[in-house]
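User: My advisor asked me to double-check a structure prediction for Eukaryotic translation initiation factor 5 before group meeting. I don't want to rely on an old file, so could you generate it fresh from this sequence?
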Amino acid sequence: MALQNIGGNNDDAFYRYKMPRMVTKIEGRGNGIKTNVVNMVDIAKALARPAAYTTKYFGCELGAQSKFDEKTGISLVNGAHDTAKLAGLLENFIKKYVQCFGCGNPETEVLITKTQMIQLKCAACGYLSDVDMRDKLTTFILKNPPEPKKGSKEKKAMRRAEKERLKEGEAADEEQKKLKKEAKKKGTMASKDGNTKTSSSRKKGSGSDEDHTSPTHSQVDEKEEADDNEDDDIQWLTDTSLEAAKQRIQEQLSAATADMVMLSTNEPEKKPKAADKASENGNSFTQKTLADEVKDELKKGASAEELLSLLGLLSGSAQDKMTALFYGLFDGIEKGFAKEMIKKKSYLAAAVAQDEGSQLLLLHAIEEFCRKSNKSAVKEVALILKELYDADILEEEYIVQWYQEGLKGGNKDSQIWKNALPFVDWLQSAESESEEE
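Assistant: Sure, here is a fresh prediction for Eukaryotic translation initiation factor 5 from the sequence you gave:
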């Protein structure tokens, strides 16, 4: 399907906002002739507006009856109209009801105020555009308002419920593992006692009928369980070497978990690479050492969970680990910092998923990174905050708290706070409007 830029920006081949080219079809004859906009649903979806709005706008501008069928998705305008004419009317619709009057960005949302006025709220710059209420389409929009999107409070509740569900699942898995281990230990002790009694009875050489009576049901079950675990019992009782212990752990747990267990239980024999470096220098872990570890793991293709597991094993404060993670992910990037961060946002999302307080740690890591290492990041700090906010990695309350604490710390003249100010103002104005509504 052929695409074109939204808003008449046809000169820019890399413009990110695009929509399908209009396709029309003339149907009927005589007084019943009509123009069918075949792909009206796709166009309206690209503009984030109901298809009924665009169809009604054509009817209002052409002075003809128009109709959009919600069930079939058919858009009809009475009369024979060529594609170029309807495409020109669609451009006018985009300028009036889609594009931001401030920055020209088409990523806007239709809002209806208490005084029955229509506004366009820009998601990029936060500007509120006032629609001209003298236009005929405004009456139709007031009678058929757009469906409201889920609010930030609902999103927070959903995220918290998901976190609680994951925590409950992990706790249930741990409990199940403990029960299996306890049952296995009881089976081992029972088999040992049974073997001792059997050997003592054989030594006595008693030939009475009591020795030849059929075993009870519980004794049969106990014997079968002992037979099933016979190999494990022998290894547990006789072979206590390090290799045997590793083999048993890997059989019971996944490979990644087994490695973590062996690292934590055999620290004197095997230490992480970063620990060796720190012990040679006689100092605790530095942010640079941790960042180097992150870079090494990224070169090996480590996932977000594996990176967090590695940092959890190393020593250092929570802030040092978060800053080291950020440095390891983005150190050395000079241009297009925000775009590069979008590619690696899964690592940041996993880092803040464990605790909501981790969001402040991430914000302080961004602040230190911008202040010490990267001028490009300072210029794009508003874009960085917006991308993390849109991805539900950072929430507005933590962003505002971080900004206010930074100003109180005596850094009012810092370029970081000056560049972050427009986005923070937009957050606060959006929050106040949602509370008023």
